[in-house]
Amino acid sequence: MLQSVLHTAINVSNLTAAEHFYGEILGLTKVDRTLKFAGAWYQLGSFQIHLIVAERDYAQPESDEKWGRLTHLAFAIADLEAAKQKLTVANVPMQASSSGRAAIFIQDPDGHVIELSQL
């Protein structure tokens, strides 16, 4: 029945901050969109991330424990240490995976959790 993953939609409160995070910090490629509501689309391979400006906060409750147990997106990365350095310079909140594997969890400006896992 299912053939492939097309996209995920993430509600954001500040499009400028979200575009900076997903485009500049994470390095995703912004693509054209024809829809009239406020947002931005980003491409990674055949997968898209749709940032949609929300009228209210859709972020998860704040949790200091094990971000990986919260709803999150996961991306494969080549160099975890280089990613940590870039994220530290950009003051992005981060948490090491409690499993001990080469992975970290970060939060976007709205508090959405993203896993970066070195393969």
Question: What does the model show?
Answer:
By secondary structure, the chain is of the alpha/beta class. The protein is 18% helix and 35% strand. The protein has two domains: 7-53, Roll (2,3-Dihydroxybiphenyl 1,2-Dioxygenase, domain 1), CATH 3.10.180; 67-118, 2,3-Dihydroxybiphenyl 1,2-Dioxygenase, domain 1 (Roll). The protein has two helices and eight strands; from the N terminus they run βαββββαβββ. The strands form two sheets. It has a four-stranded mixed beta sheet, covered by helices on one side. It has a four-stranded mixed beta sheet with strand order 5-8-7-6, covered by helices on one side. It starts with 6 loop residues before the first strand and ends with a strand. The model has no long low-confidence stretch (mean pLDDT 89).
Read across the widest sheet, the strand sequence of neighbours is 1-4-3-2
What oligomerization state is this entry in? single chain
Strand content: 35-45%
- Separation, N- and C-terminal Cα atoms: 29 Å
Q: State the CATH superfamily name of the largest domain.
A: 2,3-Dihydroxybiphenyl 1,2-Dioxygenase, domain 1
Mean pLDDT reading: 89
Q: Rounded to an integer, what's the Rg over CA atoms?
A: 14 Å
The counted number of beta strands is 8
Reported for the largest beta sheet, the result is: 4 strands, mixed
Low-confidence stretches: none
- How many domains? The number is 2
Class from secondary-structure proportions: alpha/beta
